Automatic annotation (TrEMBL), chains A, B:
Superkingdom of origin: Eukaryota
Name of the molecule in the record: UspA domain-containing protein
Pfam family, one: Usp
Domain annotation UspA: ranges: 5-153
The species this protein was found in: Rubroshorea leprosula
Length: 158, 158
């Protein structure tokens, strides 16, 4: 029997890294052969979002800088995630998925496409880019994905 | 080290029983000494809710019948839950907590009081009594409790 696919939505937040730790501690006991899927969603290409949201246009230099920033962010987030799961076990099967667009839609559709068994995410993720103007990403995902959803809070806010 | 306290909010719904099964399968591996806390919230006493919500008064016979119905419901829900966890393992430490009042408030305050490590619940629970008029109970709890919250959907709706 193939193991479960557990998606963790990671982003720039401490909370999402804590969600990953929670997931590894609680959903990856040693006798299971689950696959950890790290899902990171890049913000939509800035050329569109700058027109749509803010109503002004970035110079091409600023655009290039933003795109470079986006790629560096992917590496930074995935690097932090890697340090966390390698600290737990070197035996975990890991897949990395990078999406692009509106985080809440991309996460929901990725979960369906991957046929995930569980989605784990922070409660206030994706605040860094202020992408979640209408309600939080975790709210939306909890309502819309069909598999169980684990919403993890930042323990520092306790 | 004492094990974690995992609260499962159970109610009349199939979904909450499925949430309990998910919890036992995924959060109770054999090497952990967690305590399963079954939390059932009875609706508020009908004499108050009848004045508050519907604006009319039940006869005392109807009140007695409703209260009896409430107690029978506790036994029925706890009985179903018991059958499920005993089917998984006879070694699980189980506590039963019965609350009374507005499900979303009672669940949130019980989770804090018990110092639960995780709350597991169905996504559409407590619909039986239509107690969740303003938003779902799981939405509210996911936003308000400090520990990780697992929201489990009825797999039949897939």
């Amino acid at each position: 029997m193939e193991g479960a696919k557990i998606v963790v939505a990671v982003d720039e937040s401490e909370e999402s890294m804590y969600a990953l730790s929670w997931c590894l501690t609680n959903l990856f006991p040693h006798d299971k052969h689950s696959t950890l899927v790290l899902l990171y969603v890049k913000p939509p290409p800035p050329v569109y979002s700058s027109f749509d949201a803010a109503g002004y246009v970035f110079s091409s230099d600023a655009l290039a800088a933003l795109e470079k920033y986006g790629s560096e962010m992917v590496n930074s987030v995935m690097g932090r995630a890697e340090a966390i799961y390698k600290n737990f076990s070197t035996n975990i099967k890991v897949e990395k998925v990078i999406g692009s667009g509106d985080a809440k839609d991309v996460i929901c559709s990725a979960v369906e496409k991957i046929r995930a068994d569980t989605l784990v995410m922070g409660s206030h993720g994706y605040g860094f880019f202020k992408r979640a103007i209408l309600g939080s990403v975790s709210d939306h995902c909890a309502k819309n994905v069909k598999c169980p959803v684990v919403i993890v809070k930042n323990p520092r806010k306790k």
